[in-house]
Amino acid sequence: MKNSIYKNNKRKVSLLLFLLILINFKITAQTKQNSKPEIFHIQNYFSEAYLIKGNSEKLLLIETGVPVPGYQDSLVNSIKKLGFKPENITLAIVTHGHGDHAGNARFLQQTFKIKIAGSKADLNKFTSGKTELSKSEDVSIWGNRLRPYSDLSYQPFTPDIIVENANIDLEKYGVSGKIIPIKGGHTPGDLLILIGDNLFVGDAFVGTFKSQGGGLVPDGHHVREHFFHENKKLADENLKLIEKIAIENKVKTIYPTHNGPVSTYELTKYIKEEPLLKLFSKQEANPAAEDFRIVFSNENTAVLTFLETNKAEGKDAKTISVTETYSKEKGIWKVVYKDVK
């Protein structure tokens, strides 16, 4: 049965890779000199995992990767190449129950006796080994295109630590931080992990892509909406919650599981802009999203400019120029409207 699952998943992942033309396997250490904890980014296929080293020999793993042939060996070899032993991982956290996040949890449990933490709200996914994408709604056209190749099955498992409504302190696992359960939008069991000034958010959102070599590769600097969510309304609300948690804890770097990381500033920028871009791009009287002009002068100021055409019934069309300036230091938006002559 295991081989059958892997064979089927391999076919799906191969097609997904063909669609996205993603980057090859790589490992990068994203650390700052003399800073703790150390965060090591392990990337393979279209999914990512993070190995965290705190102030002891204990290690923490966030995400377990996709359930396809070769990934388990790649994951283990990557950890060893970084100079660590898989046996020293005291806890692996899966942010939710999709196969590209929980896909190798059982392997880690059985092979290295690593404890797994996951949400109670996604327990049915974990124990059945089913991603259950049929429960998700497409957010964009890419959701519909990628869904058939992303519905990965994996070996069922039961988390050793089941996260319910309370935060879980990670101190005893060698890292100063906590698991934060939220009301799931992507899946019912979305989890956040706060470690120092770093926040891991699973699939609450993804990073952006850029065009390169005739295909798409992760850009890793800007926020974009995930392709599908089980509850889009909650997913949208969670963005503001994540921003609030990030600001309150002075988070500098936010790590989505796909195409990150991004800054807290980038998340704030996205939350402010996206509703405007979507609103005006859907109205025939207004310019498409690509006609918007977004200029960012520095990390403290954001400027959004666009043209708005108002065709109120019984009135002549009126076009105005809208300029919105966001001050990070003051935390306010200034809006200026001008008639276009």
Question: Can you characterise this structure?
Answer:
The protein is an alpha+beta fold. It has two domains: 38-276, Ribonuclease Z/Hydroxyacylglutathione hydrolase-like (Metallo-beta-lactamase, Chain A); 286-340, no CATH class. The chain has helices spanning 2-20, 71-81, 99-102, 105-112, 123-128, 141-150, 232-248, 264-281, and strands spanning 26-30, 38-44, 47-53, 59-62, 89-93, 115-119, 137-138, 161-163, 168-169, 177-181, 191-195, 198-202, 206-212, 215-224, 228-229, 253-256, 262-263, 293-298, 301-310, 318-327, 332-339. The longest helix has 19 residues, at 2-20.
Count the helices. How many?
A: 8
- The helicity comes to 25-40%
Poorly predicted ranges:
17-35, 211-216, 280-299, 310-315
Question: Any guess at the CATH architecture of the largest domain?
Answer: 4-Layer Sandwich
Topology as a string of helices (H) and strands (E)? HEEEEHEHHEHEHEEEEEEEEHEEHEEEE
Largest sheet, strands/sense/barrel: 7 strands, mixed
| Anisotropy-based shape | globular
Radius of gyration: 21 Å
Strand content: 25-35%
Number of domains: 2
Report mean pLDDT, rounded to a whole number: 76
